[in-house]
Request: fold
Amino acid sequence: MPITEPNPAEYRSTLRAPEDFDAFWAATLAQAREFPLDARFTPVWRRAVEVHDVTFAGFGGQPVKAWLALPAGTDRPLPCVVEYPGYGGGRGLPHECLLYAAAGYAHLFMDVRGQGSGWRHGDTPDPAGGAPQHPGFMTRGVLDPHDHYYRRVITDAVRAVAAARAFPLVDPARVAVTGESQGGGLALAAGALVPDLAAVLPDVPFLCDHRRGAELATAGPYREVAAYLAVHREHERQVFRTLSYCDGVLFAARATAPALFSVAHMDASCPPSTVYAAYHRYAGPKRIEVYPFNGHEGGQAVQAAARLDFLDATFAP
Amino acid sequence: MPITEPNPAEYRSTLRAPEDFDAFWAATLAQAREFPLDARFTPVWRRAVEVHDVTFAGFGGQPVKAWLALPAGTDRPLPCVVEYPGYGGGRGLPHECLLYAAAGYAHLFMDVRGQGSGWRHGDTPDPAGGAPQHPGFMTRGVLDPHDHYYRRVITDAVRAVAAARAFPLVDPARVAVTGESQGGGLALAAGALVPDLAAVLPDVPFLCDHRRGAELATAGPYREVAAYLAVHREHERQVFRTLSYCDGVLFAARATAPALFSVAHMDASCPPSTVYAAYHRYAGPKRIEVYPFNGHEGGQAVQAAARLDFLDATFAP
Amino acid sequence: MPITEPNPAEYRSTLRAPEDFDAFWAATLAQAREFPLDARFTPVWRRAVEVHDVTFAGFGGQPVKAWLALPAGTDRPLPCVVEYPGYGGGRGLPHECLLYAAAGYAHLFMDVRGQGSGWRHGDTPDPAGGAPQHPGFMTRGVLDPHDHYYRRVITDAVRAVAAARAFPLVDPARVAVTGESQGGGLALAAGALVPDLAAVLPDVPFLCDHRRGAELATAGPYREVAAYLAVHREHERQVFRTLSYCDGVLFAARATAPALFSVAHMDASCPPSTVYAAYHRYAGPKRIEVYPFNGHEGGQAVQAAARLDFLDATFAP
Amino acid sequence: MPITEPNPAEYRSTLRAPEDFDAFWAATLAQAREFPLDARFTPVWRRAVEVHDVTFAGFGGQPVKAWLALPAGTDRPLPCVVEYPGYGGGRGLPHECLLYAAAGYAHLFMDVRGQGSGWRHGDTPDPAGGAPQHPGFMTRGVLDPHDHYYRRVITDAVRAVAAARAFPLVDPARVAVTGESQGGGLALAAGALVPDLAAVLPDVPFLCDHRRGAELATAGPYREVAAYLAVHREHERQVFRTLSYCDGVLFAARATAPALFSVAHMDASCPPSTVYAAYHRYAGPKRIEVYPFNGHEGGQAVQAAARLDFLDATFAP
Amino acid sequence: MPITEPNPAEYRSTLRAPEDFDAFWAATLAQAREFPLDARFTPVWRRAVEVHDVTFAGFGGQPVKAWLALPAGTDRPLPCVVEYPGYGGGRGLPHECLLYAAAGYAHLFMDVRGQGSGWRHGDTPDPAGGAPQHPGFMTRGVLDPHDHYYRRVITDAVRAVAAARAFPLVDPARVAVTGESQGGGLALAAGALVPDLAAVLPDVPFLCDHRRGAELATAGPYREVAAYLAVHREHERQVFRTLSYCDGVLFAARATAPALFSVAHMDASCPPSTVYAAYHRYAGPKRIEVYPFNGHEGGQAVQAAARLDFLDATFAP
Amino acid sequence: MPITEPNPAEYRSTLRAPEDFDAFWAATLAQAREFPLDARFTPVWRRAVEVHDVTFAGFGGQPVKAWLALPAGTDRPLPCVVEYPGYGGGRGLPHECLLYAAAGYAHLFMDVRGQGSGWRHGDTPDPAGGAPQHPGFMTRGVLDPHDHYYRRVITDAVRAVAAARAFPLVDPARVAVTGESQGGGLALAAGALVPDLAAVLPDVPFLCDHRRGAELATAGPYREVAAYLAVHREHERQVFRTLSYCDGVLFAARATAPALFSVAHMDASCPPSTVYAAYHRYAGPKRIEVYPFNGHEGGQAVQAAARLDFLDATFAP
Reply:
């Protein structure tokens, strides 16, 4: 892929929040909180790193899975990184994501309901179905913000922070959220909806400025929106209205924790301008790592090192 | 595409029905019949052909949409063709499928729940969700035959015949089922589960010999099964057990109405041997049209002419 | 495909007509009229819709095939829709295009000489050959406007309207022309060259602003022009001069019947700006349906519904 | 491309000549001979190699172009290589093919009527047109052997040998024919239809065992046949009957001059078994160079060296 | 990708070792041992897992890099897993591969000279070829076994085991070798050339039965061999002779430690039969995990779990 | 490919030469001149054109191969065209490039070290990297201008002119340099570094404005730079600094011989603006042929004719 846009950093989104955006999420989260969190932790992998199988009550009180990993022999609360997977992936197997535990942190890696059959596997159902949709998850329930798939997932993402904090060896004052692509979009959502996070680290975030994404992306799940609208031509306005409720550009404007973004200028799945759209709106202290010759893989281990540095500084006593 | 298999007509499937196959479907259909059919017909397009919007209670009593088209001015019961869409498509708009009505028959064109956002659009929800799945519909609920997506769709397909028969201007003794690809697979299912059909006309049917399809197809929805198993490696046996409950090879062995099949030898989505697998097992009188240089589009208008000829002969008083 | 051009609606073509453009067509049509039209109609499909096989004398008096379909039992003249196929397709089989007859209109569907082996099949020869050409039809005789393939096809298109009017059950005062892609380009040509049409309905028209098409299209027959010029580098000026004689932008400026256009913003075969180029020049009352998330398939059944609405209003007594 | 067939050298074609095959060609050539050859030679490039523009009367007496190149200052008759272009290419510019002249031979490089706009450019029209065809040349007139495009081209190819012999500095007793792909197929045809050639050198020849080619090729012009039959399903038998009149397998069985073939085992356009099909039937002394890791490009300069060695031995006094 | 070969497990390779195969490697390793190993370990990442930067003298005494990771606070020798990267990748950053250390083992992850610019980055030059560069290694020096790139890499791989054993906290009696793709091929080589390994775990190994790989692979580095021979047609025999010196089929026949293989039946880069070719020849106790619906990614985390189980059993006191 | 950039001719590069650019090359060439040129010529193909195998001492005194071709029987010094191959190709076989000799000139066709396994084959090792190998040269030694692959190749290119002049039948006062793609980039380098050339003829030159090339090219070797930087993210500045030493934009500003450029507007490998970048900076009299509908193949034989015309005019006494 060549560069996908001439000057992506100059782009500013004109997206505006629907009037009831904040009320919508306040009501949604209030409704979720009516279900007890019921976070349960079962150790399943006990080696130099220990991994616990996690179940907590997400949207609708439905059980959501996660892993919680930390160094063996930990005896006092650790800072914790809550991570969300990229599109199509799940939490995988207990030994698949060991970076943060090996680095000395606690790490909660949330499953994404219904996903986890595209690459890294998942274990969490999405017990909801409904109106005709394009294959994939983007358009599941897309005609109404209340039915939309990401309403449920974002609620799960917020509850995942609570679940992490419920673990005895996690220091609830030092929790960061992160993720790549879809995971980055969810991190932005959590950044807006969880008031007291220590840091937000979205990498090449998806779910930002959906219309632009659907117009420009040549790969990845923004294409699902375009494909749906190529059939349901009459629903254009309605679809983008629904999607605005899960738009990272709007969440960014409501997040205040220190943030480390990353963007890749040859990204065909998440056009760089859509990432900058969220970055420019981000309301807290912020920095962005730029990868001019990378595609959607972004900074990978180099960015992981940057994240660890950022977290070390953030979590330092 | 070149020819996809050297001698597809010689292939014989070794697929065997699970012991409770017939009981499973008897119970499923009995359960569906507990809901009144409640078929409603509303005229929406009144021209030289008239099209009625149809709603009937499918699986779980859930409303399923269809169109019923017939020549304007019809005054006595007509033979009826019940048709099912190909994968990803829905019933479309009222004026999209006019062949059978223009040919002088009644035509019920069923929507497929949840689909209809991939190409021709649909209006029927699938109010069920669940375990992690690969994007698409093939693996929705694939770990248990009772949860599997096609249990619901096949039940709808059987009920669609009843809905057609409920229309005053349809002669219930002269109903045929047809469809291309997924529609052909559903026609085979209806052929097995509806005892008194006049004809079964499956074109390049999908949903036949799923393992072989998943191993050989280079395009189309059999790939979803392969993709799911590439992640959920542990579920191989379970997945193919579930899929056997909706396998056209097994339905074919239970169908007895006269049948007209078609097969395309350069078909990358439904490898021709999988079509022959069903054809060889078909228990009624049968014939197959062979298209040696076609891909999954099969015989198109040429096959449509063959179908009309076959129907004329079948329906002739 | 993402959107193919940032702001296609703002584009204005600078194409100018060759000085003898009108004389060229006047002479060409006069020459065609020297051959008696000799339109013959043979019923071949008699059901709820009746279809007649049509032969008429096109360019050079050569026989051109068509279907004429109308509701069975019609007893007084109907408005008629004359339709032209997309590139590579022919008139198909008698039962392939039943929309307009089912809707209560007469419908003449012209074959395109030489084509009809790429998808829907055709029956009309192009008894002309000649200078080296790129495979396909775009560059057949492209070095001289008099030899060019589309001179013959456009003449056929004009004559097709006369053939439709020659059918006893067609009301000659109420004839519209339509078509998708190439068919849309031919509708524009007929719109300019037939003075008394009731409506012109070009969908995602091809044959508009050829140089821009050849520069920007990433698929479809404009690529043939680019491919030809990649070999015959010395003929650039000559080729575009020839092509200007069949350019929809120039025809649009000469057409005055009410028009309904459509354009798709993700169209890789007919870049949307080339469609707007013709639309902006159109000399009659006009409207354009915009499909922002569609490719070259355009509006399909949704646009068909729009066309029927437009025709109903146009043809209403 | 990987190897395209497991053991291509073991394949034997079952193709049989139509009963009138020899009569057909005898009549065709007799008819061509009724037109005087009228070979004209005009020097156009006079340097260390001299190139003459050639025109001779081909099929129907229609003018066919060629280049005749030879070393400057030649003063006694030279052996001559008559070469035919690959599909889509023409004779190009005078300085494009200098190998044989630089090697000290005369070289006549025939244009292929109608082609020469796909890559190397051409100057010879095909003043025939007609029935609907798939873009390209394979199916031009394919419903009748008398109308088929290759009847004209093969006649031209035979006449090209006569044209070469008409040049004063060509030794008519020492003429070889060669070509790659389509050129190789034409060389086989000339080998069968010109009785006194010194050698036949077909490289990765096309036009051999058409049905197998249409079934197995994944690229190249055999696909045109498959594509045509995917639309004109009813013409399968007729098409392959016509194509048998230009099949290299049948020509090979009628050729007796010493032959040097070449074949490439990863050839996606001319499946190697189709080449072996012709090779095994070849009636004269023969040898084949095998390129196990090449695609349709075959042996290129390595094969050129082999051809020069073979010609040196053949033409040695 | 569909399955790439019908019955890959039945394939047996006919590859035979060159007469001096064992002498060649004995001499090569003896020559390498003339350079002191000079393994140096520098801690660079000290967290819950500790990672040491490793340098040791590989082929020609040239410095080769690696990481050695183990749980922080280890105080007695651990079993060790020596791992080799897949083609084009290097050792990456210190925190990129933490599985084995998190699982409680020592882990030496060798860099592959010259590689590490295709995906995971590398730091080891190939001083016969220069600093790390973008891929193209298969044919570096391929005309002579002594010059061939893999002679150097395999020597490095053998020396890497010695380097691991030189680390104070590694138990030299309990060392296993593993890797995916190229890493699996190198593990087989080490399995043959290091006499006292505890286990050999090659996953979807590359470098096995090179001719079959070059003939059948449709992706990956076997294609480089085919591409080279498509140009250097004259070197076919010589190239495969050279490659036989680094062929895993021959190494397998010389390895005796317990082995756990894996193979994927839809693998386009390492055709499954080439993996079975090595497996069938393997001289020690062996088992193979089969992934019928996976491509070259093979078993991923599922296979990692299988490897950990196998290692636990192997290393258990 | 459509046009790759809207207005490429308007682009101006901002690339600036590193301060020591001229000193770097002066030192490099001085160092090369310390080795005697030792040009040796062995006739290997004696026909109407004679071809000599050439060896001369290039960078580091290392032997570089070439062909020198000229008309047989030449008896007085001829003007000479020195040509450099495109990326991945070598000098080929003696009879592969006969144009200039057939046109009456001497022609030295240099091999490019290490290349010549991608298409036309080569015979010159790069002893910093080994015998010819499959592509991957752009980043060989890219971290230091002194180690970089193109420092060696450009030195060879300069020495090739000296080698041509050492041939008795070459007129040293009349030497031109040319080449396509990489060959065009090398011609620009020679144009700057050899003071007394008669002409410089770069066609669709590669190696111009590397950063823009790496950002915009969708094919070809500029992609190697982007791919390298996608892994070695930390070396961005260093890589482009190294590449600036072999940038045709900077060489163009130092060349004064009359020049004939060519550019293709649909070139995906060498974006046209990068060619114009060099053209606009070119310091001598210049002209550029524009091919608006060609890709990287550029003008081919048409441009060859233009080159011959230009050379005739240049070399005329």
User: Anything to note?
Assistant: The two ends of chain F are 43 Å apart (CA to CA). The interface with chain C takes residues 1-3, 266, 291-295, 297, 299, 302 of chain F (CB under 8 Å). Residues 218 and 268 of chain F are 6 Å apart (CA to CA). The domain at 8-315 of chain F is CATH 3.40.50.1820 (Rossmann fold).
